[in-house]
Automatic annotation (TrEMBL):
The keyword tRNA processing does not apply. The active site is at E361 (nucleophile). Keywords: Glycosidase, Hydrolase. This is 6-phospho-beta-glucosidase.
Length: 462
């Protein structure tokens, strides 16, 4: 059976500001939390003003200066869409200013103009694992209700500026990761209580819905989505207790989507808050704000996991504290590979929300070898992506409305969890090493030509 992708399916790749741009203090940019989690998103936020240190992301892959070359390479692959994020701290260096930083706004104008030259539709995340560091230092991060206003002001500023250039928006990248230690997603310390964490997340959810409302008011033709880490869990065995454990594990991330897509907290969270003696400050205005729901659901998918009622079987290995699936192989970084999981997830989300879906991250982090002739033969990446895209095609056949697919990542960049470049994702190789050495030269890998033919044939070559 040949796979039919819709005619207007958006094909492309996804990046985040802090993993590619570098130029971390250039043109008035302030420090962001991403600049301060030097060993990756699972490390603590350090005060860069107080410690004398450099970080791999300070330069990253220098997209800030090399974006025309990179966008031209994406265009050569045939991209119709590129997901980027705006670094909030380029626009509001401290987060609480009234007036934006013009140089920061001008940078993204140039990036969007460059995309437009190549007919590439931007998909823009407002906050990809970062916020201005001052908001953590001075206000205590998302634990403080004041952040809702700061974020809303930031969203309004960029909507005003880019309303004629950007049609697709996302609020918070992998918002469900805010629940995970060390809680950098919400800018809280490790020692925070459950109540403090859920309160901070509540503020983020309200801020997200306010941004959606502004988007609808200011740009009626634009579409705004949420962004979930699609951490789908299967029961480890057919024991009813394991089936229930998996159901609850999935609630742990689906609740974000439920609030953002339905406009209110699901009843299982009310029960959870009650059982854990968590009392949230939810105002009447918050409840009103939450009613503004997203237009589409977006998610990342790298792997599935298992859940069990037996706590002794939970062990680290994957991105989260997941139980490995005995039927699956894993990547070099221990991420289990499950192409069928993406079909399952697409069906699950579509049946749950009946809203269009956008796969905004999927790909394989691997060590690449540069051959003596300079070529990079990344068949393992091609196989991973091909197998996943075949399953996306199946989901489309199942009737799921899929808007597009942006791979993570079209070009090598600094990994979020490990702050390594050696965990390479790209179709384009970047000559930079974990110790910061390298020329930053870009080279097309074998997968570059594979993806080019997939896009050219609208999925027929899969
Ligand atoms: C997602 C993030 O979790 O996965 C990206 O949105 C991240 O920022 C990607 O880079 C892959 O994870 P990692 O840790 O391998 O970079």
């Amino acid at each position: 059976m040949s796979i039919q992708f819709p005619n207007h399916f958006l094909w492309g790749g996804a990046l985040s500001a802090n993993q590619v741009e570098g130029a971390y203090l250039t043109d008035g940019k302030g420090l962001s939390t991403a600049d301060c989690t030097i060993a990756g998103i699972f490390s603590d936020v350090v005060d860069r003003n107080a410690v004398d240190t450099t970080a791999i992301k300070d330069v990253a892959i220098d997209f800030y200066h090399r974006y025309p070359e990179d966008i031209a390479l994406f265009a050569e692959m045939g991209f119709s869409c590129l997901r980027i994020s705006i670094a909030w701290s380029r626009i509001f260096p401290n987060g609480d200013e009234k007036q934006p930083n013009e140089q920061g706004l001008a940078f993204y104008d140039k990036v969007f103009d460059e995309m437009a030259k190549h007919n590439i539709e931007p998909l823009v995340t407002l906050s990809h694992y970062e916020m201005p560091y001052e908001l953590v230092k001075k206000y205590g991060g998302w634990g403080n209700r004041a952040l809702i206003e700061f974020f809303t002001h930031y969203a309004k500023t960029v909507f005003e500026r880019y309303q004629n250039k950007v049609k697709y928006w996302l609020t918070f990248n992998e918002i469900n990761m805010s629940l995970h230690e060390p809680f950098t997603g919400v800018g809280l310390p490790r020692s925070s209580t459950k109540e403090q964490i859920y309160q901070a997340i509540h503020h983020q959810l309200v801020a997200s819905s306010r941004a959606v409302k502004l988007c609808h008011q200011m740009m009626p033709k634009a579409k705004m989505g949420n962004m979930l880490l699609g951490a789908v869990a299967y029961p480890l065995t057919s024991k009813p207790e394991d089936v229930w454990a998996a159901h609850q594990e999935n609630h742990g991330w689906l609740y974000f989507g439920d609030v953002q897509a339905r406009g209110y907290y699901p009843s299982y969270m009310t029960r959870y808050f009650k059982d854990n003696n968590i009392k949230l400050d939810i105002t009447q205005q918050d409840r009103e704000d939450l009613k503004e729901t997203i237009d589409f659901i977006s998610f990342s998918y790298y792997m599935s996991c298992c859940a069990t009622a037996d706590d002794s079987l939970r062990k680290k290995g994957n991105i989260l504290d997941m139980v490995p699936n005995p039927h699956l192989k894993a990547s070099e970084w221990g991420w289990q590979i499950d192409p069928v999981g993406i079909r399952y997830l697409l069906n699950l989300l579509y049946e749950r929300y009946q809203k269009p879906l956008f796969i905004v991250e999927n790909g394989l982090g691997a060590n690449d070898n540069v051959e003596a002739d300079g070529s990079i033969n990344d068949d393992y990446r091609i196989n991973y992506m091909n197998d996943h895209l075949v399953q996306v095609g199946e989901a489309i056949e199942d009737g799921v409305d899929v808007l597009g697919y942006t791979s993570w990542a079209p070009i090598d960049l600094v990994s979020a969890s490990n702050a390594q470049i050696s965990k390479r994702y790209g179709f384009i190789y970047v000559d930079r090493n974990d110790d910061g050495s390298g020329t930053l030269k870009r080279t097309r890998k074998k997968s570059f030509y594979w993806y080019q033919s997939v896009i050219r044939s609208n999925g027929q070559t899969l």
